Amino acid sequence: MSRRTLVRSIGATGGLAVVAGCTTSQGHPDPRNDGAHPEKGEDGTHGHSGDHHQDDDDNAGGNWQGSDRSDPNSDIRMLTSQVRLPAQFRSPLPIPEQLKPTRRTSDTDYYEIVQSQAKVEIIPGLKTPIMGYNGTFPGPTIIQNPGRRVVVTHKNDLPVPTVVHLHGGTAPYDSDGYPTDFVLPAESYGTFPTMPAMPGMPAMNDPDAHVSTIRRDYAYPPQPQAGTLWYHDHRMAFTGASVYRGLAGFHLAHGTEEQALPLPRGARDVPLMIADRAFAADGSFLYPALDPTMRTTPGVDKPSVNGVMGDVILVNGAPWPVMKVDTARYRFRILNASNARTYQLALQGTTQRFTQIGTDHGLLPAPLPQDTVVIAPAERFDVVIDFSRHKVGDEITLANRLGSNSTAAVMRFLVARATEDGSSIPSTLSKTAAITTTGSMTQRTMKFTRGHQGQWLINKQAFDPSVSQADVPAGSTELWTILSDFHHPFHIHNATFQVMARDGRAPGPYDQGWKDTVFVNKGEKVLLAIRFSDLKGRFVFHCHNLEHEDMAMMATFRIT
Question: For the stretch 176-213, what's the b/e string if a residue is b when 16 or more beta carbons lie within 10 angstroms of its beta carbon?
Fold first, then answer.
């Protein structure tokens, strides 16, 4: 039986037909979250179930100003925490540890990471079990300098298989994090055969999978451009649960062009990982998994098949933190690491605007003033905020115009010190040329739609590792049109692209620069010029709403 047939047979139950897991241990329902009652949406009403979509493109709530189409969070369930939410702007902003190489050679930096369980205090007074890189959430930050190769040895000390994907990175196929290239845990956790299906369904194999036991070396060549990359778990059918539990961290690639500029640096070059979560009464993450052990049955309960959002906004793992800043410019590398939530970020308490200097894959040609920043899951925006015109004691809030109540604020900046600032934002940032399209370019159309049985499909197909939806020549540039019937962040591995048009019009204000992820709203048609790596092999593209990805909205392509 094919994977497509299997997923169709399951329909809207929230599970995938094909899954990496253990056949010797059965999962049990989570008594904290049995899906028996609907969660409240951000507007105070009950969230929609996974079966229903809006029938029009009207604004569904909030202050969505990104387009004339629907709020990108509409029809996505928001979970309500079972704990008393902490006061906002009390926790200091954590800065993820910068990982030190274990050794260096003339051209390579070597790092080691242990994927392990830990308990951390996120909600004051409670301990939250996480799965973390080196037992932290976020994981440690890896720095990749110009011209340097990086090798990261990951040891899996978790009770489940994992896969590490360097999101936005250029990597050979066996280090990219293909979703079936498992790193299996120790045998003490049980046997994980190929890929058992859901109970009562036949299994299928992926004969091309590269499977390791306990350890795996991920080798990354020098990156072609600077960029705010990030690494996260990419295990087939369980990515949403894995990332929600903490398996995410920054990988910052620098470039010679970038390093020559007088931009803020050092302690004023700050990564911000924004992620929403909900919490159970005991402080654990509240996630509507069909199998909380993540060992046997993939997927989420039926009301959550459109995606999972929480009512607590975390930045670098802390709820609504506060950061003390100088009267100076700061560079913030903003990552949306949420499973499904899109944000519209704005500054309150200041007349200053964001100055966007970069996006997913490095610097823009020139600075771009932005009143707001709309950032979908997995997108990155590189911005400068100038606090030099403020006085000590001023407070500036990073707000979310797509939120309300607890999700309307993200974090706060407190101007704490007066100082001199030698940084500046030059009028020219990058000389990287824009893509010029030609009539000879190969054109393809990828339709992201909901199937009649409730599954998420690309060109009417569920994910099948053995089926390639595109074979592209190494180093080529193609024109892809992405069509969507829901809110889908499109992401492609081992490639970079520029947005050429939206619905036949010019790209939007948040579409500039080189990207690997782009938001496609319900009913939109987005034209991309995609430049593929010269590293050959099989890779994937998919929706980065992680619940959609886990439920088959992913496809293989091959670079030949």
Answer: bbbbbbbbbbeeebeebeebbbbeebebbebeebebbe
